[in-house]
Design goal:
By secondary structure, this protein is an all-alpha fold. The chain has one domain. The chain is built from 4 helices and no strands. It is elongated and about 90 Å long. The N and C termini lie far apart (about 90 Å).
């Protein structure tokens, strides 16, 4: 007895559904998802550390160079920009 194409598709769907019910929930959707700090909490932690958001528009080439240098910098992009701005302001004050 041969099955119709629709019966084969239904059978395959039931098989996949069963596999999905048995599979474990990935960490990004389970308990580990709650470990990420939400935006409000992150803002509060940044404010306690004395950090303020600072937005500006930069040329794309400069941003690419900053990202390339931030990969090797120990504090990441934020620390690199803080370091470079601090150096620039100190050099400017000496003039």
């Amino acid at each position: 007895m041969s099955m119709k194409k629709t019966d084969l598709v239904k059978h395959l769907a039931k098989k996949i559904d069963g596999q999905m019910k048995v599979a474990a929930v990935p960490g990004r959707f389970g308990q580990a998802a709650g470990a990420v700090v939400d935006k409000r909490e992150q803002r509060r932690l940044d404010a306690q550390a004395g950090l303020l958001p600072f937005a500006c528009k930069l040329p794309a080439e400069l941003v690419r160079q900053l990202h390339d240098r931030a990969v090797s910098h120990e504090g990441g992009l934020n620390a690199l920009i803080a370091h470079l701005l601090g150096q620039s302001l100190q050099n400017d004050a000496k003039r």
